[in-house]
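Record type: ASSEMBLY
Status: queued
Input:
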Amino acid sequence: MLGQSSSPPAVEVRGLVKRYDGRAVVDGLDLHASPGRVTAVLGPNGAGKTTTVECCEGLRAPDGGTVRVLGLDPLADAAALRPRVGVMLQDAGLPTGVPALGVLRHVAEMYARPRDVGELAERLGLTPFARTTVRRLSGGQRQRLALATAVVGRPDVVFLDEPSAGMDPQARRAVWSLVEELRADGVAVLLTTHLMDEAEALADEVAVVDHGRVIAHGSVPALLAGADSSTLTFRAEPGLDLAALGTALTPAGAPARAAVTETGPGAYAVDSPATPALVAALAAWCADHDVLLARVDVGRRTLEDVFLDLTGRNLR
Amino acid sequence: MTAPAAAAATPGAPAADADRAAPAGRRVRAQARFETLAVLRNGEQLLVTLIIPVVALVALGRGSFLDIGVGDAERIDVVTPGVLGLAVMAGSLTSQAIATAFDRRNGVLRLLATTPLGRGGLLAGKALAVLAVAALQVVVVSVTGLALGWRPDPAGLPGALLALVLGVAAFTALALLLAGTLRAEAVLAVANLLLVVLAVVGGLVLPVSDLPGWWASVAEWLPPGALGEALRSSLVDGAFPAAHLAALAAWALVLAAAVRRWFRWSS
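Status: finished
Output:
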């Protein structure tokens, strides 16, 4: 598609504030999602992800800021938006006493030209439990049924709150491939996740959210980019002398000492480009100090590393 | 098609936006059918809405283990109107409160509110479903009563019908008030307790005249008592129970206002 970047945003959130009992759960959050793109809102539990999408879905009224979906106000223009927006709630929101496919058929009846229910069920692997009541479905099966109800009306914008939570790898792949198909069809997909691999695999854009704010955003490659894009981590006994090790790992003539941090008991990260010389220097220092290296990893940075850098905390 | 304002509001969207949703009538009917079937498919709901009233009618109408003040009327003629009231109370209060409370807890209300059905369509569908179930209850209880020898006064039928509709409205509003404010487990307990207690001492199945004096004069103007008395005076005596109908209408309005004020869509 031409001119994707110039098409109007499907979702535009500016300075969103939402308080519960006076406590700001979302605190000045900016976000946008475009047609034909998958935007992931990535953050730990309690970061404000669900509240943000609920404001976009018209389920909650913001305490501040503006939310526009397809140029419309999710509350004031709800009737115009509902036929064009598909929603998958975090708790699925499915009636429990009804057969799985009965729920999907019922939601399909709300639309003039829904997707073919049988084809969609086949696509997401719902057919084997089509006649099972929702109450008896596993968490992953419910999630897939909820995703089917979100897309059955051929929406322009889809909000998916933790879409692959509780799914086995096979079901996850079915979900991911459906999301990719939606993107190819020009649908704007906004999903929340606390799974780095999901964001890395699916998202064109990632907004990293913590404490109700976006602390970083951009494409996955852009977020991972930088001179120190490969990292060196290792495991050894806890309590190594970080200053001495840092000095040993600093190449001659380097402007500053390499920083070594103990990210957890016995888990270390070296904040320096991973080079063959660095690995050799680490091994030599450990041999000199009679320290056994239990494991050495040299790897590309992941979104989790980015998140750790930004917040100092692990994502899960 | 000639409304440029509508087209301008949705830039870049396909022209047929306006009719992407199914027509409102079809959405509401679909929801009504869905909810009605959900009641009829659920064993516990069926027990409360149909089986218990029919059993109560047979037991109270045929048996004589409970002393019911019938005056000069036939016992079955006094019992059947009360059981009609019991049935619609079970359907529109107990069954609806429990179903809505669990739908709320499970996020069903929120999900349906995001589809073209919306909150208004959801409520309209629910109201139609309650009326459909109530109609079915009235038919089943009436046929059973007629088979047992019930002979209602035809002059009282309009008043009785009005009483049933107002009763359904008041009880459904109370159901939504419970379901929209309390935890699902609490609703389960309260809704069942209300049914049992109010059916017996609320002037619904037993005439208000059988209740202790001070309580009778209160119970008569509460929804179950007002419904029971309205049904009995119309179907037994062929009267038009204006005062009790007014009481039911007032309860329906007050409870609906309370629902508007306090109902929460999510738990």
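Annotation: The CA atoms of residues 9 and 34 of chain A lie 5 Å apart.
Annotation: The first strand of chain A starts at residue 11 and ends at 20.
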